[in-house]
Design goal:
binds iron/sulfur cluster; 11 helices; 5-stranded parallel sheet; Rossmann fold; 18% strand; 314 residues; Cobalt-precorrin-4 Transmethylase, domain 1; 4-stranded parallel sheet
């Protein structure tokens, strides 16, 4: 068996920053730390921190007054920040700067009187956070059919934004429909689907034709990981999204000579390596890593964490 190992894959700069942020807090404060939602959408990562005592919560009311609260990489709405302030929580914001960029765009367009069409998946943490910046001004769409149902007139001021982890292809279809219906619609100068999402999808598109099957390491609730699996399926290949080697089934590989392995932006490299070990041991797989794009993006730790460290609070 031949394995092509996609590069880039796995952790992006936003996930790296969020995880380093939580690690620094645990190291210095001890594990009595609260995180609003999952720090990143990955079972392995969340379980590792939970086993150290970190508490992942879905309601700010669960956090005791004065405790340390981290906002996850997906961002939060202003209402959540306000609630945390009112409970006197010491909040640290691990939102990815590329998500913050979308929040800032939403605020800017809303203040300028635009109706904002947000292309994204209903219920996703990032979408909830972005919509919370200007709930009166934002309408969510997921598909070209949703665009057909919009009732804005061409004269109204319209702008669109996108969730950072969408399929580039699918978002493109929705944007095309938006432009057909509303030719004057505006958008930010730099697109919102982030570099990491784009690059991981690009790698799968480049390499999938050479293999029989696609394995994506990532959790089921990880948006960007699901999109990678869907690209494989859409291109006529068998494709599986798995949290780790323990989910692999030997019969998936009956008659399979070549496999493409990649990982979503929140999946750690250790789970990739465990899969490669399994494929080598079970099927004598040889691994060739193929780089389709270089990545050199890094983000600093959140300002409030750096200030706490400087002040000797941690
Ligand atoms: S996937 Fe993109 S937007 Fe999300 S955390 Fe990573 S770099 Fe940021």
């Amino acid at each position: 068996m031949k394995v092509l190992l996609a590069n880039p894959r796995g952790f992006c700069a936003g996930v790296n920053m969020a995880i380093e942020c939580l690690e620094a807090c645990v190291r210095e404060f001890g594990p009595d730390i609260y995180v609003y939602h999952e720090i990143v959408h990955n079972r392995h990562v969340v379980d590792r921190f939970a086993s150290q005592g970190v508490k992942f919560i879905d309601r700010i009311e669960e956090v005791p007054s004065g405790a340390i609260l981290l906002y996850s990489a997906h961002g939060v709405s202003p209402a959540i920040r306000e609630l945390a302030r009112s409970r006197d929580l010491r909040s640290i914001d691990a939102t990815c700067p590329l998500v913050t960029k979308v929040h800032i765009e939403a605020i800017k367009y809303a203040k300028a009187g635009y109706n904002i069409i947000l292309i994204g998946h209903e219920g996703h943490d990032e979408v909830i956070g972005t919509m919370g910046e200007a709930p009166e001004s934002i309408t969510l769409v997921e598909s070209p059919e949703d665009v057909d149902r919009l009732t804005f007139t061409p004269e109204q001021k319209l702008a669109y934004l996108t969730q950072t982890t969408l399929s580039v292809e699918e978002a493109g279809q929705v944007i095309r429909r938006l432009k057909e219906r509303f030719p004057g619609i505006e958008s930010p100068p730099k697109e919102d689907i982030c570099y990491a999402t784009t690059n991981r999808q690009h790698a799968v598109r480049q390499l999938i034709e050479k293999v029989d099957l696609l394995l994506v390491l990532g959790s089921q609730n990880s948006s960007n990981s699901r999109r990678l699996m869907e690209i494989g399926l859409a291109m006529g290949k068998r494709a599986y999204l798995i949290d780790g080697q323990h989910e692999l089934q030997a019969d998936w590989f009956d008659g399979i000579n070549s496999v493409l392995v990649t990982a979503g932006a929140s999946a750690p490299e250790v789970v990739v390596q465990e899969c490669l070990d399994y494929l080598s041991e079970q099927f004598g797989a040889t691994v060739e890593e193929v780089t389709t794009r270089e990545e050199h993006v890094t983000f600093p730790l959140p300002k409030e964490l750096r200030q706490m460290m400087k002040a000797g609070q941690i």
